[in-house]
Amino acid sequence: MDITWEGVMPAITTKFTSDDKLDLHMFKTNIDAQIDAGVHGIVLGGTLGEASTLREEEKRKLTQETVKIINGKVPVLLNIAEQSTKAAIEAAKKAEDDGANALMMLPPMRYKSGDKETVTYFKTVAKSTKLPIMVYNNPVDYKIEVTLDMFKELVNDCPNIEAVKESTRDITNVTRIINRFGNRLKIMTGVDTLALESLLMGAHGWIAGLVCAFPKETVAIYELQRAGRIREAIELYRWFMPLLELDINPKLVQNIKLAEVYTCIGTEYVRPPRLPLFGKEREQVIDIIETALSKRPFLPPYKQL
């Protein structure tokens, strides 16, 4: 399947049972809700997917199950976040074998690689696979920035490096990327609280977090702005903002999973050492969710725009 780098692609959460096993039933419930809402792709194994806690066989099982559930409706992407180039190459091969349509790739984990090391890492993995690649550029959380000069070397040398998940928190970077690369490097905004601004400045799509609990509202914002109905998109985005802020928080996994409980498409179970929210922190998040739900807006027929 060819991938079109546009639209809303959920960074999907991994569902667990109370005894810390994969909950494939609730996982399917959530994926079905995403597809019904009109998302344009599914991203597995990201931070929201608690990838660092997943065993290799669990990642493969989730990929295989998602491919089966999706059945070609939208592309399935697997995130690669490894400590060594060798492990990243192996992960890319397994993703391809398991039916993934594309990869999202972080720089090397733990080791703070220099510019040349980072570029060499991406190039080596890209040349080992036929799958299209989206480079995840998040220097705020992962401490390594892929600069425009580094991207120039990557796109010149690796045709399958096609997109960037732009998470620098700098809206002007969208314009810089477009000015430098035109349509050669597609831009997927990766920060929920900057999503509409990024789309209006030319980003092609949105790798989203709160979409896991509110898929229809997320897709509606994308489709409204795409259709030029900016005022309606802004009004919906303003309602959504207190929820979107739950994504830019160290407890984003717990926050979003709690929101999924309230919208009946997830559970709170997380993999230790994470624990579900408790105390005042839990009360504050519940208040945000319940307040938003009490004012949940009516959505226009956004799929027909």
Order of strands, main sheet, comes to 1-8-7-6-5-4-3-2
Distance between the termini: 25 Å
As a percent range, the share of strand residues is: 5-15%
CATH fold label: TIM Barrel
Radius of gyration equals 18 Å
Mean pLDDT: 97
Quick one: CATH class?
Answer: Alpha Beta
Level-2 CATH architecture: Alpha-Beta Barrel
Total separate domains: 1
Q: Give the class from helix and strand content and strand pairing.
A: alpha/beta
Q: Which homologous superfamily in CATH is the superfamily?
A: Aldolase class I
- What is the number of beta strands? 8
Keywords: Lyase
Organism: Winogradskyella pelagia
Protein name: Dihydrodipicolinate synthase family protein
Family: Belongs to the DapA family.
Would you give an account of this structure?
This protein is α/β, with parallel strands linked by helices and 305 residues long. The chain has a single domain, classed as Alpha-Beta Barrel (TIM Barrel), CATH 3.20.20.70. Helices cover 45% and strands 11% of the residues. The protein has helices at residues 24-37, 56-70, 85-97, 115-126, 139-142, 148-157, 172-181, 195-200, 215-226, 230-244, 252-262, 279-294; strands spanning 7-10, 42-44, 76-80, 102-105, 133-137, 161-166, 186-189, 205-208. Helix 7 links the parallel strand 6 (161-166) and strand 7. The chain is globular, with a radius of gyration of 18 Å. The mean pLDDT is 97.
